[in-house]
């Protein structure tokens, strides 16, 4: 599978060179993240390649949030790193079985997951992002959860992270009034 | 405004945010409150086995277990209970949404308060499925009274709400939602935002509209809001009207965030569709999951007309 590298400063590298043309033909390429990749790098990618900003309906909103964040120091002590993972789950038994496949971004500290939705975006922009495994759950049985190495495409990364961030907001107004 | 409130709890931390709002409401309106938990789902048909809410493991459904759950609930909400004049704790075994709806009907409650999820683990799965098939969805669809769904911490309380967002698609159910929204805004004395989204997702599969046509539709919708809702508001002038084109749930979430909405009020299935089909992709579910404030689902006029 063709591979691209997403860099810390938001560039997309293919064949050891930053993309100079439209990134759209590379949406299905396998992605590797630079070690220092953070969520800020993710947003910087859209500054380099504006056309990618049209790939998700919530992107304009979350990018607006990003622009209002400080330029540095956006981290949260409860979150060590962010992990982007994939889940394949067989559900439905004994009724009609079905298979669901989805990507999700979660905060990790030690071995524990934490919810991102109640943390302001400025709380985790500078936290490292890592690619996780594929989790295979069979009929909701936690005993039968298998983990495999997998690959993620550029489209999955954009769609999955923005999808996650669309749930992420905090009731600022309430806090202010209180 | 509310005389009887049913707080449907999972008796787990997943309901903490909803509990905060429910107890606040009961205190403010000096309402009777029932804290209700339907524990577990009998495995297949009749069974004495239930699923423990904390551990998710099987437990024997007997008097001891029921009493233990009741005691747990009382202990969990001990501090918040002090401010509620008339409070009752109740549990039962069964299918959660059926029991909640049955209790709401039997007790003739004015409002059901509940969280969006049963359990907080495996967040990705819950979101991916848009809580399809969950208790919340079925209660919101079937309840005769408004259902207030609280999916994240809300540090305010009901009488502090200053921006109520009412979303409509001009359906019959939305009329009931409007009555509730107006009643709330009028009662609290806060601002009412009336919002409609031109559903471009549905239109995209058919004729593609030109910009002029979109603007024409927007103007039409604004007039419709004036005629259908503003005409019922008497002297109340603390409102704003907005119509935007797009995917309804996206636009609702974005608009609510923009105006700092404290409470979103809408019908569960806003279009006149087969209720069974409304289960999937319902706008309100997407809004519940993504909005930063509680969402009230109102489908029927019954309790909205009565509530004073």
UniProtKB/TrEMBL annotation, chain A:
Give the source's domain of life in one word.
Answer: Bacteria
This one is known as Uncharacterized protein
The organism encoding this protein is Desulfonema limicola
From TrEMBL, chain B:
Tell me the leader sequence span.
none
Q: Which Pfam families does this chain map to?
A: Usp (PF00582)
Q: Which InterPro entries match?
A: Rossmann-like_a/b/a_fold, Universal_stress_UspA, UspA
Residues covered by the UspA domain: 1-150, 162-297
Q: Which domain of life is it from?
A: Bacteria
Family per record: Belongs to the universal stress protein A family.
Record-linked PANTHER family: SENSOR PROTEIN KDPD-RELATED (PTHR46268:SF22), STRESS RESPONSE PROTEIN NHAX (PTHR46268)
Q: Give the protein's recorded name.
A: Universal stress protein A
Q: Which source organism?
A: Desulfonema limicola
